[in-house]
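Schema walk-through. Below, the input block comes first and the output block second. Nothing else is stored per chain. Lengths vary across the set, and this one has 109 residues.
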Amino acid sequence: MKRMGMVIGVKPEHIAEYKRRHAAVWPEILAKISECNIKNYTIFLREPENLLFGYWEYHGHEWAADAAKMEADPKTQEWWAIHKPMQAPLSTRKPDEWWAMAEEVFHLD
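--- output ---
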């Protein structure tokens, strides 16, 4: 199992809608997340900075393949198309990132 985290901004005028939509995530999205070996997925919001921090545990063996499977899914693409305009990617993210991946520096079970 690998713990993974990521960060992105959320535009202040979209915070209420972002929360509302994530209170009722489509079942197909939840199923695809599970199918891609992701468990314990959580998104936190930090205001007033308007930062989202996503955390999950990856239980698979080929992250790149599972991430590609999720990205290719039409329902996931539809979900992302709704939410991307609400987000504000960090200027320091890598060229191939939308959410900026975060380095794990500490963990305690």
